[in-house]
Amino acid sequence: MSSGKITVVISQAPGKNPAKRALEENLAASLLMESGIELSIVPHLYDLGPDHTGRLFLESIQGDMVVLAWLFPRAAYWLLDRDGIGGTEGQSPLHPLAPKDEDEDEEPTVKAPGIGSAIGGPNRTIWCLDLRDHAGHQVYLEEIRRISAEVTLLRQARQAQKQANQPVAIITLGLPPQKAAPEFTPENLLEAPGRRWYPVIDYSRCTNCLECLDFCLFGVYGVDGLDRILVENQDSCKKGCPACSRVCPEQAIIFPDYKSPAIAGAPVGNISGLKIDLSKLFGGEDAMVVAAKERDRELVRDGREAVGQTVGIARRQANKPSGPKDDLDSLLDTLDSLDI
Ligand code: SF4
Ligand code: SF4
Questions:
Q1: Looking at the domain assignment, is residue 158 inside a domain?
Q2: Are residues 123 and 241 in the same domain?
Q3: How far apart are CA 243 and CA 219, in angstroms?
Q4: Which residue in 313, 338, 172 sits closest to 246, CA to CA?
Q5: Region 239-266: what's the mean pLDDT?
Q6: What is residue 148's predicted lDDT score, i.e. its pLDDT?
Q7: How far apart are CA 177 and CA 161, in angstroms?
């Protein structure tokens, strides 16, 4: 038996782009006609501070949910996770897992696993869909219908598992009782937040090397009680600067609103598929040089001394060539500087 509705959240694009608003509105209008769906609209996820009603609403959702945002799914998923909105990441054919690199060995590569989410979270699935992938709303509608059918099966499986684990005398009534949600009016939910800028860590990739902690001189990073890296002071990060994402050896640091897909949370395998050394083609600089310059710029703006590459430049950098991520970033930075 299917239990309850699935929550679908549309996260609005920042700004007032008419095409983006039209897609959001068309999708919302279609979803309102669908049965089994609880629809809500919140402002841009990345901008929601801890006290924003939209964030409190998201925190109050207990069951499976679909989040449609103008963000890469990897960025949206880890953004939610860091906000304490956890669950298993749902896979969607709209954003398949990163394809295997053609040049990769057939043998599975030995890669240190990320440290994983520390927040646990309820037994539910969160699907994040990128609204930039398709111009029309129909494809999202069909995917939400597919997910809704998948959720029905998932809930049946959970129910069966729960019944198998419980004494027969206990009567189960479907999903665990949900926390009474506070009242969320559309006006409160959609109250425009200010723009924000901070790193988001993908803990499925992060190996806790702490190089970002060494590199950032602005007190953004810290560690938890188990010495695991975390973004401790989000709002101390310098707006528009993505320097530490260039330093992270695992491409685990995401700035969801940055112009380069590599830094904004594109699937890492897709970026690795870019074989041409674009940075050299366009005369770009090594990622470490770029990162040090970006950090110096912010230090000087703060009235501090520039340090160049003398402080916190990662231990791994000595013998490691810049990866494709760096190339793509360099290309975009170079194109920006050329004003093409
Ligand atoms: S540099 Fe990257 S991998 Fe290392 S602790 Fe920071 S986020 Fe994790
Ligand atoms: S972008 Fe700069 S200020 Fe922000 S966390 Fe990274 S190094 Fe620190």
A1: yes
A2: no
A3: 14
A4: 313
A5: 94
A6: 93
A7: 17
